[in-house]
Specification:
The chain is of the alpha+beta class. It has two domains: 158 residues, no CATH class; 131 residues, no CATH class. The chain has four helices and 19 strands. β8 and β9 form a beta hairpin. The N terminus is likely disordered.
């Protein structure tokens, strides 16, 4: 079973009341005169229902676009937009009950919750031939440390680099991280470009007969993994080392992105069409309102 992480959305949601501010006598959560007055002040409920649908699909579209943009990012984990149906306005105001089967319970639009990250989905395996590259097979994460703050993070991206001063590092954007050993300390090898060293399938740096295992850990709670940047995670409840017998690492390989470009393109097209549909519904609602106003003015 895949474990997931849900994070808060970056943007707000479309207001259900058309953007009006509440006065002292109205209440969104309680039935009563204030709610009735607020409903009377509302503009077209269908207009905002359609606009909210377009907003939700746009959030989904942005999530898919981010996946496609990171199709070549080592260790990147696919994200999904998390959305759910919401109650109708009448139910939210307390004038009806959920699952009543009445017209008041037909459709209340969609609510965007945030994003879901498929943390444990294995990315594609890539042969690089570089001895600084390592791919984890199965469960586990590399332990890395921020070079300035000392804060530790977990990552599946084993695209490492040896600096001239001997430090083994990896990068997330422009930020540099030190690769840690099993004691949680940055790995430092003999300085210089021509010094002979290698890596093996036990995930060890072998230099002058000395074997230094690269830290391989598992989080205490996958639900408390917070994504940082493109392929880093912060474990809010700590982590434990992977047992020696369960360490499986491929040297000279990389775990690529866990994104399927073809599947994402299909999702992208579907989200785009749903945005168009909702925007057409907004236009239709607007045209109906304008037509009604015109008829009223002619009668007047």
């Amino acid at each position: 079973m895949k474990r997931i992480r849900i994070s808060a959305p970056s943007g707000g949601e479309i207001p259900r009341d058309g953007g009006f501010e509440e006065n002292e006598t109205s209440c969104l959560t309680c039935p009563g005169q204030g709610n009735q007055e607020k409903e009377e002040r509302n503009m077209s409920y269908g207009l905002y229902l359609s606009a909210e649908g377009a907003h939700a699909q746009n959030y989904r579209l942005e999530t898919i676009a981010n996946n496609i943009a990171n199709v070549d990012t080592p260790g990147f984990k696919r994200e999904l937009a998390v959305q759910q149906a919401r109650h109708t306005q009448r139910i939210e105001y307390g004038h009806d009950a959920p699952d009543s089967g009445s017209m008041n319970d037909v459709s209340g639009g969609v609510l965007t919750i945030g994003t879901l990250t498929e943390i444990q989905k294995q990315g594609t395996s890539m042969v690089t031939g570089e001895k600084t590259d390592m791919e984890i097979v199965g469960e586990g994460f590399f332990l890395v440390q921020h070079m300035q703050t000392g804060e530790q993070f977990l990552t599946r991206a084993g695209h490492f680099q040896k600096l001239p001063d001997g430090r083994l590092v990896t990068h997330s954007g422009s930020t540099e991280f030190a690769v840690c050993d099993m004691n949680g300390q940055p790995i430092v090898m003999t300085p210089g470009e021509n010094w002979d060293w290698d890596s093996n399938d036990a995930g060890e740096i072998v230099e002058a007969g000395v074997h230094t295992p690269v830290a391989l850990v598992v989080p205490q709670n996958y639900a408390k993994m917070v994504k940082q940047g493109k392929n880093m995670f912060k474990s809010e409840e700590g982590f434990t080392p992977v047992d020696t017998g369960n360490r499986k690492i491929k040297p000279r390989h990389l775990e690529g992105s866990a994104v399927d470009p073809a599947a994402e393109m299909v999702e992208l097209i579907a989200a785009s069409r749903l945005i168009e549909t909702n925007l057409k519904m907004v236009q239709q609602q607007d045209d109906m309102t304008n037509g009604l106003i015109s008829k009223v003015l002619r009668v007047s």
